[in-house]
Amino acid sequence: MQTAVIYARYSSDNQTEQSIEGQLRVCEEYAKKNNILILGTYIDRAMTGTNDNRPDFQRMIKDSSRKEWNYVICYKLDRFSRNKYETAIHKKTLRDNGIKVLSAMENIPDTPEGIILESLLEGMNQYFSAELAQKVKRGMRETRLKGLYQGGGLPYGYKVVNRKIVIDETKAEAIRFIFNQYLLGIPVREIIANLTEKGILYKGKPFAINTVYGMLSNEKYSGIYKHGEEVIDNMYPQLIDKEIYESVRHKIEKNKYGKSSIRVPYLLRKKIRCGYCGKPMIGESGTARSGEVKRYYKCSGKKHNNGCKKSQIRKDELEDCIVNAIILELSKPDIMDSIVAKIMSLQNENESANSTLTMLLNEQHGVEKALNNLITAIENGIISNTTNKRLHELEKQQEDLERQILVERSKKSIKISESDIRKYYTQALQSEKTLLINILIKEIILYDDKIELYFNNPTSKSPDESRGFLFCSYNTKIVQEKENKKPSITDILIEMYLG
Ligand SMILES: [Zn+2]
Known about the structure:
- By secondary structure, the protein is of the alpha/beta class.
- It contains 16 helices and 16 strands.
- Helix 5 packs antiparallel against helix 6.
- The chain is globular.
């Protein structure tokens, strides 16, 4: 029998998230359905977004080297990491240990075509969420929120009267002053000095700079409160004109990003070596006399004076060349046909019995049962703070589920056509550059007159599995011939040989 562990994570910063218990339940159901034995669980609770320490996750990765189980099951792949790039790296580590990651909610395999499908589905999700958020918003506002104070911290300038949030005029004037002054270009330090002079303090002390910036970017002052995807506009009375708030927001962003240069990722880092001395090529930048920043890949051997003669190459040119080579490769008619066919069949699979909708409906059933049990307990007089808290949790979960089910139901009625898939195919490849490079490229060896590009070989265990890695299952050597000493990026010659 195949064996697995479950990894679950709950981050407190996303309020619409599935609870740990919910995640575990879905994963267990998934395992049962697929005849997989669960050997243990790894759980990271309430880790904040900025803290990527996740002790149990690290422990799980470490334990994976003992190769005692075949799979890691998670509720959704986003439990794994906040971005796809990291997810790909972690998955690779596990794959090296012979372990596969399974997502209980998403039936998308860990293959290039899976990734392309995922990015298409993501676009659809966004579309549906945006449209449905509008509809759901109205319903929720009427039933649940009614604009009443829900507890929690109240921003400076507001107070609660009869469960309704109202403007505290004794403090609101300070907020208006701060926004107006900032918009006039008065430095925050000076604004604080002015307030202190007027005797306006924050908790008995002069305002801190961070506090003021926090206020300037608090959307609630403009009357808008965002709760996950919901936009609630009847809870906080408007203290700052919407237009003023927006102008301030733009100004803060401009000041934040305008001065310091934006960090530019070197997509090929850690993948390229110099063809002459074998040392890694590293990212370098310099500012031209015109003030324009120019970025290069440079041989680290040459940089440390090992005598290597490799010339540096413009970052954009090299990256474009590599990405184009990959896209060219993936756009060959036979490869494209086979990927499109795969995506179509994945889409059909997703719709069948194993679909997200079925999972959600099962989960809804579970939550309803738990709610009924709890209500029975309350009716029998077993009431405590914890039951009350649990009741709210379950109700919240029920609402989230209803919303997700609504989204899935509407998605089911729309299917991406084959011609649409073809249309979006190249776009999807373009938007996943980093991921494509990380998953598909094993190594790039750079000469002045040619580029050798090696694709990854899958570490598949059975021939059946390797079929999934359609275009990873051979080594491809892309040789870029140079005509007159300068690399011409457009002429790419692809030579393939079986690895
Ligand atoms: Zn070199």
